[in-house]
Amino acid sequence: MFSRFRPKIVLEGYWKFKLDPNKKGEEEGWFNGLRTGDLIYVPSSWNEQRPQWDQYMGVAWYENEFFVPKEYDGMRVWLTFEGVSYKAKVWLNGEFLGEHEGAFTQFKLNADKAVKFGDYNKLIVEVDNTLTKKNVPPGEGMNNTYFDFFHYGGIFRPVYVEFTNPDYIEDLTVITDHKGLLKVDITVVGEGRLIVKLTLVDDEGREVYSKSVEVKKGKATIDDHVSGVKPWSPEEPNLYTLRASLIKDNEVKDMVEENIGFRSVAVRNGRLYLNDRPIFLKGVGRHEDFPVTGKYLPGAVLIRDFYLMKELGMNSFRTSHYPYSNAHLDLADKLGFLVILESPMVGAREEHFTDREYIEKVKRMIEEMIKQHKNRPSVIMYSVANEPRSNVETAYDFIKELCDHVKKLDPTRPVTFASMFHTEDKALEAVDVISLNIYLGWYKYPGEIDEGVREAERILDKVHEMYPDKPILITEFGAGAVSGFHHDPPVMWSEEYQAEFIRKYIEMLKRKEYIIGMHIWNFADFRTPQSARRVILNRKGLFTRTRQPKLAVKIVKEEFNKIPTFLE
Ligand code: GCB
């Protein structure tokens, strides 16, 4: 939900910055103002902005100031943080506004009591990226993570201040189908007689639908049918702007917008359907990772990535291994990508499966993820976890509880998780779609592509035999290649080995009628913790970290462009 109606101050730029390795800041009252000459850029992770901060894990403080015009007096004031890794505490003008845990979901704090109108306002944020076994995802240190990507810290996604009328629209939940169903649940905060007017505008600015409803006890609902809509699909990502205006005494008090698409998703007869047609997912697992900006992908990089994916014939990706930024998923909506939206629950171990407090935390993060992205046409499936240690019995209850939680919050989309245990997995019964990560010919059978592919085929057939009604998606397969390293014959880490590995896997996978899609691991090389297995980066990218192609790109382009999106 966004608004062009509400005044907004974007806090992008240089902020004051101060490390607090001994955690004395709170005690010493740093929330009143930082004594420091250090600067940092927001949005971006702190690590690569200065070599001294690269391996820093712990507490750091941020400060910025913004001016609030006098005319805004009487409005409500909100601070939105789209992503802070990993915990944040926020003060405005020395007053504590609130806190949040979890790097990858946005949070909004009210600042009505602390704000000064017609004056400068001092915003201070304490950030803590200490990694523990209780984090989601868990770990024990910068180079001892239970996940295979670099543990960045900081305010790495946009921050803004937004002003609303005291009567305002709090939330919209939109459900559509490809035939024109339009169900909207509106939540409003306000007093007196309030009307919500909904209008639907097509991409040429034409109003194609309009209806007004009265708000009762803070709620209003529309359950309707819009005739003549153009459905949303990867081939034609038709978007409409749903505009909701809040009206009181014949005056518009608030207005919010949502980009929506008319489309339906279903799993039946072992297939995945989009708009009642069976569909095949061709794509990649991605990461949000870039030199210097760390876990922030600037808009220009995102544009490059999406056009590269399009050229390669891709129609899908997974937000491995956490919910991506609003800007990232906006492009998926606009350019027609089918997204598997993954929760930040990577690498759960047996100790997590029965830890009630931990499970509730994961559920809270899943709830925030769904609240933030539920109206996106691009999001066609949720993944509740990546590679939990799900070869033990207790994994079933853990995964089942997360899947049920998702279904309760959003019954319209299928649910999955990415498994590394295949036939040994104890939790596959809980999902709508089975997702498998496979590395035979790399971690197992190193140097033996043919043997790896043969063994992968045997395992896949076996999983299909065990769960004949469930479609199977390959969420990861791939091999590392050091860009510029060539070798004949193809040996591990050469561009030739990666290209051949991917070609042989695609050939095998596309022959299997129970497979509904394949995602290559990974779109681009990405930074990892330091380890004996990695030279700074995970090298399984089709592209380098700065988005230059490796040899495999040619193969993927040829193969993927031959596979149609719709199977019938
Ligand atoms: C996996 C993980 C992914 C790793 C990848 C690898 O199965 O899901 O996070 O990066 O393997 O390259 O080892």
Structural overview:
The chain has 568 residues and is of the alpha+beta class. The protein folds into three domains: 8-164, Jelly Rolls (Sandwich), CATH 2.60.120.260; 178-260, Immunoglobulins (Immunoglobulin-like); 265-560, TIM Barrel, CATH 3.20.20.80. Helix content is 18%, strand content 33%. The strands form nine sheets. It has an eight-stranded parallel barrel with strand order 25-26-27-28-29-30-31-32, surrounded by four helices. Strands 3-2-4-10-7-8 form a six-stranded antiparallel beta sheet, with no helix packed on it. Strands 1-14-5-9 form a four-stranded antiparallel beta sheet, with no helix packed on it. Helix 4 runs parallel beside helix 5 (394-409), helix 6 (449-466) runs parallel beside helix 7 (495-509) and helix 7 packs parallel to helix 8. Bound molecules: (2S,3S,4S,5R)-3,4,5-trihydroxy-6-oxo-oxane-2-carboxylic acid. (2S,3S,4S,5R)-3,4,5-trihydroxy-6-oxo-oxane-2-carboxylic acid binds next to loops. The site of (2S,3S,4S,5R)-3,4,5-trihydroxy-6-oxo-oxane-2-carboxylic acid has 10 residues, from loops.
Quick structural summary:
By secondary structure, the protein is an alpha+beta fold.
List the keywords.
alpha+beta, Jelly Rolls, Immunoglobulin-like, 568 residues, binds (2S,3S,4S,5R)-3,4,5-trihydroxy-6-oxo-oxane-2-carboxylic acid, TIM Barrel, 18% helix, 33% strand, 3 domains
